[in-house]
Specification:
The longest helix has 18 residues, at 26-43. It is built from three helices and five strands. By secondary structure, it is an alpha+beta fold. It has a five-stranded antiparallel β-sheet, covered by helices on one side.
């Protein structure tokens, strides 16, 4: 469990990189942790004073699943939005959806988990 601050998102990215050292999905997983962690801080109560977010990695030689759970506080399910060319925000979930083979969203306004699954091309994993 990580305290709800941007510094913790950076720590979660480093932790992901360390855990997945040498895994072909490491770079994409690290980016996904950063995007989903930042989204949890911006769009849920995770970024509030006592907020937290939780990062889970599940891995095998063929697959990596990255899950980020936010503290809730928003009644709507996350969705990708189309950002204008000059926008500096609103691209996170779209980036995750581009990198991930599969994306799932579970939970409700009290806590919500976004899970992105990556398949390793080097291990001959089957396509999504």
């Amino acid at each position: 469990m990580c305290p709800g601050s941007l510094e913790e998102v950076a720590r979660a990215r480093h932790w992901t990189r360390d855990i997945l050292s040498g895994h072909p999905c490491a770079d994409d997983a690290e980016l996904i942790v950063g995007e989903l962690g930042a989204n949890a801080l911006v769009h849920t109560a995770s970024g509030g004073g006592a907020g937290t977010f939780h990062v889970t990695l599940s891995l095998s030689p063929q697959r990596v699943a990255v899950s980020v759970t936010g503290s809730g506080g928003h009644p709507d399910e996350p969705k990708a939005t189309e950002a204008d060319e000059d926008d500096t925000h609103c691209r996170g979930l779209s980036i995750v959806m581009t990198l991930a083979c599969r994306l799932s969203i579970t939970g409700n306004q009290h806590d919500r988990t976004v899970t992105a699954e990556l398949h390793s091309p080097a291990a001959g994993a089957t396509a999504c």
